Structure formats: C-alpha cells, structure tokens
Amino acid sequence: MKEYIKMVVVLTVIATVCGFLLATVRYSTEERIVEQVLLYVQGPAVNKVLSSSTNDLIQDRQEIRIQDQEHLVFVGERNDQPWAIAFESSAGGYGGDIGVLVGFDIEQDLITGIGILTHSETPGLGARVTESTFTDNFNNKTLNVNFNVKQDGGFVDAVTGATISSRAVCLAVRKSLELYPEIKKEIVKQ
Amino acid sequence: MVKAKSISKEFFKGFWEILPPFRLVLGLCPMLAVTKYVENGLGMGIATTFVLFFSNIIISSIKSVIPKKVRIASYIVIIATFVVIVELVMQAFFYSLFEKLGIFIPLIVVNCIILGRAEAFASKNPIHLSAADGLGIGLGFTMSLFLISAIREILGAGTFLGMHIMWGSYEPFAFMIEAPGAFICLGLLLAMMNLVPTKLNGAN
What we know:
Number of domains of chain B: 1
Strand order of the largest sheet of chain B: 1-2
Helix content of chain A: 40-55%
Strand content of chain B: under 5%
Order of helices and strands of chain A: HEEEEEHEH
Low-confidence stretches of chain B: none
Number of helices of chain A: 3
Oligomer: heterodimer
Radius of gyration of chain B: 18 Å
Largest interface: A-B, 19 and 22 residues
Structural class of chain B: mainly alpha
Number of strands of chain B: 2
Radius of gyration of chain A: 22 Å
Largest sheet of chain B: 2 strands, antiparallel
Mean pLDDT of chain A: 86
Number of domains of chain A: 1
Mean pLDDT of chain B: 85
Structural class of chain A: alpha+beta
C-alpha cells in the first residue's frame, strides 16, 4: 500500500514540476515564435507583393474584423499614407488548402501580386504554383478581369500538369476580391 | 584521481567504444531521416545531445526517489519535457532549422538512445558520471550524424553546409540524398567500422 501511494505521489510531483517548467519556457518564447512565423512564413510574400512600401510591413500588421471573422491585414505605406494592403485567402487544392497572400493597390484598385504562403501540393507538379513564372500572372491586374485558368475562359496560364492547383489559386484570388472592398473601407476609415 | 579517470572514460566511450548509432545500434530513425544536409544533421545532433545531457543529470539525481514500477513513465516525462524545451527554443531562435527538422524534433522523445542511457546508465550511476555519459554519447551521435550527412550532402548535392565545393562540371549523385542513399551510406560505414577492430585483433 505504501509503495502504491509513493508511486502516485512521485509521478505527480515530477509531472507538475515539468508542467511548470514547460509553461515558463512557453510563456517566455511565445512572442518571439509569433514573430518568427511572421518573418519566415509570411514575411517574404508580404515584402514581395507590397514591395515599394517604406514602412515595416510585419510590424504594422492589423487585425480587421469582418462579419465575425478576423483577418490579418498587412498595410503598405508610402509617404506615411497607406497605398496597398495584403491579406490571406485560401482554397482547396490537390493536396489540401492553398493559402494565398493577395496584395491590392488601394489607390488604383489593382492586384499588385500574389504569393503562396502554405500548400501541400505535389513537389515538382502542383508545388510549382509557388514559382514566380506562375504567380507573375497576377501582377498588376485590374479587378474586373477574369481570374480563371485559360481552360476555364480566364487569362491565367496554368502550371503544366497541375490544373487543379492552378484553379485553386485562382479561386483563392476570386475569394479575396469579395473581401477586398470591405477591408479597404476599414483601412481608409482609419 | 580515480574519479577523474572514470569521468573521462565515461565521456570518451561515446566516441568509439559504444559510438551511436554504429556501435550502439540505436537511434537509426533520425539518423536515416535527417542526414540529407550537414546543417540538419548537426542541428539534430546538438538537440539530441542537449536532451541526453540534461535528462541523464535529472534522472541520476532523483533515481533514489523514483519507485521501480513507474520508472519508465518518469523517465519519459522528464525526457519529453526537455524535448519540448528544445522545440520551443529552436522555433524561437532557429526557425529555418526548425522548419527543416519538423516532425523529427518531437520524435526525439522516443529516440531509443536517450531512454536507453537513462535506463542502462543514469539510473545506476552518480550524477557526474551520468553527465559525462550523456555528453559523450550525445557528441558521439552528433559526430556520426555529421559524418553521414557530410558524405550524403557532398556526393548527393555537391555542397557542404550549402556552399558549392565540387568542381563546376560535377553532376550531383542525387541518389545519395534520397532515402535509399541513407541506408547504403549507413551500411557501408557500419561495414568499415566492423572491419577495423577485426584487423587490430588479428594483428595482436
């Protein structure tokens, strides 16, 4: 009986101490981890689509609420005036959701460009939607053009052998078009 | 004097006598999976060394309190704690390495080398010897990972730590950075290591 109690007590004490230790480490690294994820996952894409901005894009990010949904919006500024915004939109591809960062010029209502943030497409095929030969299709496009692959009557050159992935990116861009007026309204209001 | 001698003995045995994973044929999963590039191999080795060193010290210092029946559970809790610490720290300070090693960091928890050392050594020996053992085995493991990943990266990609070191017309032997290359590289090295002591014994 005595050994039975000792077993429970020792294991509980060990687990509690470990739990506290982990909570401390997690608490002290949390902020840096969020920054690192922004820097390494979103940073390169954000800097690409909002490239002529003069402010720190990662630092000036904003959370904007539209219809009970939080959207992380990156705002690019020139001469201390917001000139462009970028936010993520996603659609189901061949291997899972593809997260696409879409940049908009709010002065001229243009798409400045897109960047792929997350995807799980087939390496060498669908994964090639991340390459600039594909993403450059979307550079400096007005919002009224048909964002579809050529097979579907649009203007986008699909990646060879990866029509499903290319379609998903187009769909994500079209979804972002629906959100754009509302997010723009919020940014201009500020 | 006797003590100092045994510390160095426990420390250096990890470099040859029971060098993991060649002598102590444990920890093969990370060895095969993360040795595509030197950077990954070294990162994995250092992470494992950290966990091994601290888990050995903690387990050795509380070995008299842990009841025999729950010892494995206790060891796993302690090991898992250090692994998560490594994971968080790596994510906060070395994010690109964290992205490359991915799932293999949490999998250090079930690396047989660490539980093996806890059970076979730290739970029976004093703290200073356990620390030396953990550090020695860890560094030995890091060396092995470094060796295999260097061979694979140089032959398979023509680079070393990302720098091109082979002559311009060198055609990378891409097979080496694929999974089968890891098995063949490991097998050849094991064979070579088995050859050395046989010859030494023969000479004697």
